[in-house]
Amino acid sequence: MTQETLPGTTDRRLAALLTILAENATIVTSGVRIAREIGVAPSTVRRSVRQLRGLGVRVKAQRGAGYFLEGVPDILTPEMLRQRLKGSLFGKHIYHFFKTDSTNRVALELGHAGEPEGAVILAEEQTAGKGRAGRAWQSERAAGIYVSLLLRPRLAPVQAPLLTMMAGLSARSAIEAQTGLTTDLKWPNDLLVRGKKVGGILTEMHAEPSQVRFVIVGIGLNVNQEKFPGELGTTASSLRIETGKQVSRLELLVWLLREFENDYNRFLREGPAGVTQKFEAVSSYAHGKRVRVTNGTASFAGTTAGLGPEGLLLVKRDDGLVVTVISGDVAEAR
Length: 334
Ligand code: BTN
Hints:
The chain is α+β, with helices and mostly antiparallel strands. It has helices at 12-23, 31-38, 42-54, 78-84, 103-112, 161-179, 232-235, 239-243, 249-270, 273-282, and strands at 59-62, 66-69, 94-97, 120-123, 145-151, 184-186, 190-193, 196-207, 212-221, 287-295, 298-307, 313-317, 322-325, 329-332. Helix 5 (103-112) links the parallel strand 3 and strand 4 (120-123). It starts with 11 loop residues before the first helix and ends with a strand. The mean pLDDT is 92. Bound molecules: biotin.
């Protein structure tokens, strides 16, 4: 078994212990058996159990018998993911953190260090999750999916933003398959359910003038949050709030990565038209929506008029001029 390690990634033993306990959930497994399976001393198992508890995993000890989990934790262990993603682009290098500042930050570092395409960096909790336009991304422990994917596509830098939209489409399909919810996409990167944000995508890249070196697609999904602090409560929601049911992060993530791989291969094979057409077909924001576009201190109102070939949003201003929105915030104008 290989386990990717970096400072702060989940220790191999901890991940293996969690996998054994989760696979035998609610059954008592002896410390000796666990020690044998992981290949460590029983004292190390005891230490790892303490560490897991410190991370919020409810491991119970039964005197003289062993350990069991009080409930099946919805933790995205690299082993479980790797098993489910065997043979896929994203099943090879999985970096898991119980806590990190930002998975995009880690992925950028890996990209610069020459990490191959397909690396998956995920965290149960982010302390400095990055959102678009310098905003923060709330990343409550084990409630959402916080994942970054490292890609090395042969694309011109102008085409890279299409990956943001493509990721939105992949996430939309995964959410629909897992929960039955229909998600709206707000250009370029918001996933909305009943007008509230349940996910977002932050794409960052390193490129030469004519060629992308690598792209990081960071995806944040609000899955099992029960509420959001302060102001966020009025604009954000989670799949759990919208369905009234707990959603398996593991199943959703596996689905998302499979969809993403299919969509990515199709995009590289067939070009951007498939992405822009699909986006236009499913996003209520693509055509005929009254919006206000804000970029720094400048802002204007208009009506959306589809997407350009590179996926940029076209907005017909009230004075009749059609403007291509390169960056900025798009909000529904009422
Ligand atoms: C947005 O809508 O503003 C984009 C949010 C992107 C959040 C994800 S969570 C995983 C990855 N790591 C980060 O620091 N940000 C992205």
